Records
---
Amino acid sequence: MNTNLLKPGLAAYTGLFLLFLYGPLIVLAILSFQGPNGGPQFPVQEWSTYWYQHLFGATDTSRVSQLPVGESLLRSLVLAFMTTVVSTVLGVMSAEAFRVRFKGSGPAFYLIILGMMVPGVLVGLGMALLSNFIGVSRAWWGTAFVLHVVYTYPFAFLVMLAIFNRFDRTVEEASLSLGVSPAQTFRRVTFPIIFPGVLSAMLFSFTLSYDEFSRTLFTIGRELTLPLSIYGTFSVEIYPNLFAFGVLTTVFSFTLLVVYGLLMKRFTAVKSGSYKGQEEAA
Amino acid sequence: MTTVTTDMPDTTETSPAAAREANERRRALMLLSPGLLWMILFMVLPMLMVIYVSFWTQTTFAVNDTLTTASWERFLSSATYLGAIGTTLRIWAIVLVATLVVGYPVALFIGLFVKNQTVQTALLVACVIPFWTSFLIRVIAWRPMLGTEGAINTILMNLGLINEPLTFLLFSEFSVLVGMTQIYCVFMVGPITFMISRIDESTIEAARDLGASFGTIFRRIVLPLSMPGVIVGAIFVSVMVLGEFATAASLSGRKVNLLGNIIVSQVGSLKWAFAAVAGVVLTIIITAVITLALRVVDLRKEM
């Protein structure tokens, strides 16, 4: 059979697939180094970092107005932070609840999961209608914030559920039967075991909220978040400063990912170190 | 566990097991209630509000809560709105098939042929990395790719394959389909790879020892065992594509109007009741799709 050809064939296909995934971003990155007189298309007239300087307002005068990112960036970061805290706490609590079988756990599970399934435009519309109805004005820290949690809490919940599923309950039971209080047991036994999961849940919540767009569109009110500021520029002509911005946000996200990786690594290193110490003491 | 308690003679003292069980259930409910309350207040209630407002009376600049079916009648008798339902379903079906066709071979390669755990992880990470770029940036990145002076046209012209730039690439249904396929195919690759990599190696070896060709192995073992992954992927892709509007708005040049785009434009002109009607229609479609998919696979078991 042609099984010998199959593997290289699929490997080549996977290579093409990665090109399909990365192609547009590579093109975007190349065009972000377009010269001052160039547009968002080929050819690149001269290589420069003009559009990066433009982003920070470091160019003198320009035919293109600056991207309105400053304040909305700060707002997005604060909002993502608030969302991360609340959804991670809710996620840990709910996953902890699901460790015992109880009546109605099925519907409860699906109610939580629904939060990541419901299209943003629908729940956003509903929230806007609801806030109009009860007379609450829309704001990023209010109507948009609660929807961000609706969206990210299911992710945090699923991550924690996966962690709890793999986690040996007897360790906790040993602690409880030795007379340690439930609160202490959670802090000293449960939490250190689930911490990598908590970190992943936080990373999920933060990046999803930071990038969230469709839920925010109808619920934001006057002060925009970063994705909405960016979306606003789509309706007019786009310039390479948008591409430069895209490259910078990608770099920022990677920094976040690396920090997460380092934290994970450091945490696991500390844990194995403490085990070694215990062995020596014994 | 409950049968144990019913079998017990009903005396004044409850058994320790039953007491413990009741205690655990109370604790579970306490832990769960804040999350459930949040979902009911900020997800279920808004969705009910959409249904309620779809029966409100729409005037030029406002809505009032006099109940009427006027918005529904207008929606269901308008060619534009019914067309949007058709477009939404067509785009959804094409993107769903496209993500499956594009993604399945990749999942097959990573899940079945890459034996080295590190390489496997690296490939999956490579698929996920674009997700750390903003969604809107990934959408807009297709403009310099597909435009008349974009990368593809430039390359094709330089190769001498075409003399005139291809104009159907951007601001057409084509660009929307390509953009959505690229953005959502990873949601297909992930679950399918997960299911394929879980297949026991010895099952495939046994089949091979018994003389099965790769075609047979694929058809009889790999494909059936990967089906839950396909369904989970299809659910992810479906809910995201059906609720889409940004890709169509940014890449179609207003040529593609999905239900999501209808909602956005109606809200923009303060036609809340019409937007609500479109919202309810969209909800019905999505519910139907998910219900259908969940008949095939129990999501909770697969997680």
---
Amino acid sequence: MKDHDILERISRGDESALDYLYQKYYRMMTNLIRKNNGTEQDAKDIYQDALIVFWQKVVSNELVLTSKISTYIYSICLNLWRKELDRKSKLTYETQQESGYFDDDNKERNLIIRDCISQLGDTCKKILMYYYFDDMSMQDIASKLNLANVDTAKTKKYKCKKRLDSLVKSKYSASDFLD
Amino acid sequence: MTNFEFFDQYLKGKLSESKRSALEDQASHDPLLQSELKLQKGIYAVLAEERKAMLKHRLNQVPVGSSGWLSSMNIRWAAALGSLLLATGGTYFYMQYDQKPAAAPATQPIDITPNTEAKPAVPNQSSEFVAIPKPTVAKNSTASSDNISNTKIAQAPDRGTKAVVKKKEVGRVKVPKMKQPNLPASFAEDSKAISYDDFVAPDKLIDEHTSSEHALVDVETNNSKRYSFHYRFEDSKLYLYGGFDEALYKVIALNRRDRRSLFLEYEYHFYAIDDHATKITPLEMIGDSTLIRQLKKISEK
């Protein structure tokens, strides 16, 4: 499969193209991390994160690729790993203590939101994720989820989001979101 | 643009700089708007996390070859280098062994018809050894010509300097059967190049690895020009020969009562894999429509 075929498939939201990339460059990318003091698990995590960044950029049509896909992913891996090493080196006992309160607060909020998302139907969840995270067009969302047309997808997305908002608000009062 | 769309654009970072700062400025004076923004940011962040987790879960199902530093290319290079050293050393000792008795009768008259049987064999053997990529333990007498040459190398370390013998001698000299010793754990990676004919894995161990229908089989591809679409299965590892970089492949296990059957899915076709096929074997496409349906079902899960 050539690079332009992969890009074309990913821009349509075809996740099997992502599987293909993952398999093809697994050894190359994970070796990069392992050779720079990373463990096998670090390597896998960074490579997966890099692929997700790549996926998001392509699927939302943000990316204009001027190099080979492998070169681009390689540079994402390198940047992510540098950031991770930097984060690890800065992570001291004191900073962990300081951020503890805010982390707990956010965690609790996120747990509630996660719980509300789990109450949505499968199609609802996917529409919202494709729309907000992948930034896919309504046309692509409609064809990926076998919806009748773009308008159906738009209506469905609107209803799903409204339902999610009201679910979260029913469990949390507005004041809970104030600092 | 409705409020709904306006928030969406804000969350996706698609609002213009002026609109974004105006909204944030307004929110700093309006607690309700501020809480709404915070709620929407929270929802957006969790949706993103969920989506990432979904994609990661998917990637974790994709079979990837082992990537330990001991495996793959390192092992191949080590094996090739080992073979080369063995071959060179073996040839050297053979020549020493062959030449010593010849040096003794120096006072004898020169024979114009020298020993033409043994000498020409030396360069041939040497070139054969150099070309061999991996040493493997002798399998049986019906092995292919590749395996015959491999056999010679494998015997060399066990039999010392006299181990390097001509093809004819292999037939005459009865090679004692030897059991492979249990290798320590640290050499587990090295053992991948050795086939154990008499080794049968305990059923319990196999069952532990076949609980899911997507088989957890270690796969290594070899973009060989010699083999277009072949495989071999050795030490629970599947070796694929040919241009398998063109599309995604998947190994599926079908668990039956007392045994499992392995299948390879490649470009929407299924191929049977015989897990006893230690020799390089062509992949054969499955034609049974019932079986194909069953495999498709598993594959789509």
